[in-house]
Amino acid sequence: MTPPFQIRADYDARTIVVYQAYSSAIADAALRAGRFVAPFSFHRMTWIKPSFMWLMHRSNWARKPGQERVLAVRMTREGWEEALSQAVLTTADPAAVARAAVHVQWDPERSPRGAALNHYSIQVGIGRHLIRTFADDWIVGLTDLTPQVRKASTLIQTGRAAKAQRLIPVERVYPMVRTLESVVSPRWMKGTA
After folding, report:
1. CB-CB neighbours of 153 under 10 Å
2. Cα Rg, the chain, nearest whole Å
């Protein structure tokens, strides 16, 4: 049985992949530049998600307006862990959340058909004070997954979920140091396990 709060991701020794969905204008500009540039907003929080399936649920498989393009954002693990070290859970004291450079929330993980599962997926909101660092220093690559997403969605809709599974990135448990675990774990989970 999967633990309820566990970060699962596609990662290697140096990097981790997070996912975001954007309009074509933002995605095309970013892919041309190899990093986020205008019309991407550097003045508001941007949410990154290591769960591909959760982003598929959120973007309705790249069919929601303004979320028609899915990008795999490869960032340094050092940057990911730095973001987590500055995080405050969105369920914390509202004043602490308002001051936080990074927000963390946990939402039910999703199946390919969108059903809520019995474990959670982390979402990390990078605030406007760190967004330039995220975009300029932590990101090492951007990949457009939109064609892959559309193909997988079509396969699922036509009853070929097993074939679609081959198009879904493999995610495994991300190794968390205890100090970061204590920052991002929901309060009622602390002291358990």
Report:
1. 18
2. 16
